[in-house]
Design goal:
There is one protein chain. By secondary structure, the chain is mostly helical. The chain has one domain. It is built from 6 helices and 2 strands. It has a two-stranded parallel ribbon. Strand 1, helix 2 and strand 2 form a beta-alpha-beta unit. The longest helix has 17 residues. The chain starts with 22 loop residues before the first helix and ends with a helix. 12% of the residues are buried.
């Protein structure tokens, strides 16, 4: 998501795949200053990839982290833009109920919903 809460890149993964497995792919080739993620993205590799490109990783450490990182909680509050986007996307029935059986068709409807949200 960009600073306005609009999607920059969407990647569809199987339900059993962890979000963190696609984190580097999500930020690849996209300019950024800050990357905000939830605890699911807490990984040394992800933080190193973000900081290696000159960005700031605003990702809270997991509760069981041996050495928890400092988190800028005022910046982390902007993560709600992602949640609000998905709330709007799920207003489209085909996205919310996942009627489509093929991944490419479902992703196409997610893109269509994203375009409709952007046009508002």
């Amino acid at each position: 998501m960009n600073g306005l809460g609009l999607p920059v890149r969407l990647i569809l993964t199987p339900g059993q795949a962890a979000d963190v497995s696609q984190a580097k792919t999500l930020i690849e080739g996209i300019p950024f200053e800050v990357v905000i993620g939830d605890k699911g993205y807490d990984s040394k590799d992800v933080v190193a990839a973000v900081e290696g490109r000159g960005g700031e990783a605003v990702i809270p450490s997991r509760a069981n982290a041996a050495a928890p990182r400092q988190t800028d909680w005022s910046r982390y509050k902007d993560r709600n833009l992602v949640e609000r986007f998905w709330s709007k996307a799920k207003q489209y029935r085909r996205v919310a109920t996942r009627f489509e059986k093929k991944a490419q068709n479902f992703l196409a409807f997610v893109h269509a919903a994203s375009i409709m949200i952007m046009l508002r």
